Amino acid sequence: MTTQIHKIQAPRFSDVQVGDKLPSLTLPAITRKTLALYAGASADHNPLHIDLDSAREAGWPDVFAHGMLSAAYLGRMVAAWVPQECIRSLSVRFSSITQLQDTPICSGEITEKLEGDDRRVRVTLKCANQQGEPKLVGEAIVSLA
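^ that's the sequence the OP posted. Answer follows.
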C-alpha cells in the first residue's frame, strides 16, 4: 500500500485581497473521548479537562476542552490553506471556555497585505462554537509567493 502526500499550493500574493476568507474548518462536537485522546496526545492531563469530580470541585458544572485543542484546530485550518513553511507566526487569545458538545468552527480572513521583501498577509483567526460564540481569536502572518 502506498501513501499519497498531497502538497498544498499556497495562493499567490497577487491573487489575494483584504477581505478574502480562508476555507473554514468545522470539527465534530467535543466529547469526553475527544478530551481523553487530546490529553494523551498532548500529555496535558489537567483534571479540569478529563475528570468530572475535579471539575465540579473547582466550581465547573463539567469538564471542558483544553484551550490548546482549539488553538491546534486553528493551526490545522491555516496549514490546510498554505504549506507550513509559509506560516511565519500564529498567535491566539483565549476568549471563553469550549464546553462539551460545542462544535468548533474555525474561520480566517485576510485583513492586511504586507508588501516588502517577503510578501506576507495578516489573517485574523477565530474558533467559535455552533452559536457563533468566539472561543479563541488570533492572527497569523503568512508568506505568499
